[in-house]
Amino acid sequence: MTDQPKTVKAAALALITLVATGLTVGCGKAGDPAPGAATGTSAAPSAGAAPAPGPAVTPAPAVAGGAAPSRAPGGGGPVSVTLIKAEKRSLPIGLDITGTVTARRTVDVRAQVGATVREVLVREGDTVRQGQTLFRLDDRNERAQLERAQAQLLRDEAALADARRQLKRSEDLLAQNFISQGAVDVQRTAVQTQDAAVAASRAALHAAQVALSFMTVSAPQEGRLGAITVHPGAYVSPGGAALMTISQMNPVLVSFSLPQRHLGDALSALKSRAAVVEVRGAEEPPGAKPGPAAPLVFVDNAVDAASGTVRVRAEIDNRDARWWPGAYVKVRMKLQSVDDGVVVPIAAVVQGARGRTVFVVDDEGVAQAKPVDVMAISDGLASLKGISAGDRVVLEGRQNLRNGSKVVDRGRESGKAGEKADKGAAKEVSAR
Fold this sequence. Notes:
Helices cover 29% and strands 30% of the residues. It has 3 domains: 79-91 and 341-412, conserved putative lor/sdh protein from methanococcus maripaludis s2 fold; 94-104 and 246-337, Elongation Factor Tu (Ef-tu), domain 3, CATH 2.40.30.170; 112-235, Helix Hairpins, CATH 1.10.287.470. It is built from 5 helices and 24 strands. It has helices at 3-26, 140-175, 181-213, 263-272, 410-431, and strands spanning 79-85, 87-88, 91-103, 106-109, 115-120, 127-128, 133-137, 216-218, 223-225, 235-236, 244-247, 252-259, 275-281, 294-299, 309-316, 328-338, 342-345, 350-352, 355-361, 367-371, 373-378, 381-385, 392-396, 407-409. The strands form 5 sheets. Strands 1, 18, 19, 20, 23 and 24 form a 6-stranded mixed sheet that branches. The chain is of the alpha+beta class.
């Protein structure tokens, strides 16, 4: 009987110990293993061991580093985007057209008389000046005709001088009443006739000189020579093929067709002589530097009813021989400019069901969608109303954004990564 209280007391102490142990397990941190449990694969309980009383404990899921993952509001981290700054500036509006380069003047050189080519004094592709000799033809017959005309003129002039002397004698005899008035009139008529003969001989001499000049073919204008189609010994004639062509290379003209709705703009530019046309080569990339802006010099007097366009021409400086007649070129004609807008790339504008918006990022790195009005689009740029100059606008990555999304600038992050890599490389070199 004396041992019974001790037994009861021992059982009570054991019960208190078990309860305390259960409370300690229940109040432990999530993810801590239970007392007596093995790390990794849990060991099976020993045979005959009774389960510990107390509440059941569910272990927390393990994560790398033992820390719980951090999530931004909205269920994800910051969105990586590319940002650009909006600029307030003028945006020129232009019309892009395909045009053709044409020479200011092109002349076909032909023979003016039938003759044989004696000498060719130039080569294909030469640049010649006005009046430079190109060909010499066989001129022996023309020289003979010139000499004959000269001799005929000398004979007629001598006959005229003799007729005048005869008239003078007749007038003296008439004064002395040795001859009649009729005889004097006959001599006066002879003088007038011989005077006309001298004039005809002078005209024949001039014609012979002109015919002889045709034996030398000269350049009617300055320019670049084309292909030469004849060689020494070939017979040429006025009705035959052209001997060559000469094209004026500076300045040149660019011809293109303008839609009828822009006829008023073309007429205004023609009147003001404003430089409104820029030209690029057909094979040049879009960002290539155009030539100097040029004015319009011609607007056709009628609109083509079939195409609804009007033919116009601009005069382009070509001292560096950049533009070649017959080549296709890209033409941009400036129509107007928008001066009171904020300019961003058109790729930054989002077209939605409620209109056009752009995502603007504040100083806290939060993106907000702002509605905008697009006033003009040109060369991949848009002039907008609704944002301010200096706003940071999302250019790339906007498809992943919502109002209030946190963003990180790719350019800034890549710059930081580059700086860290440079510092690491410098430390490694210094350590070596």
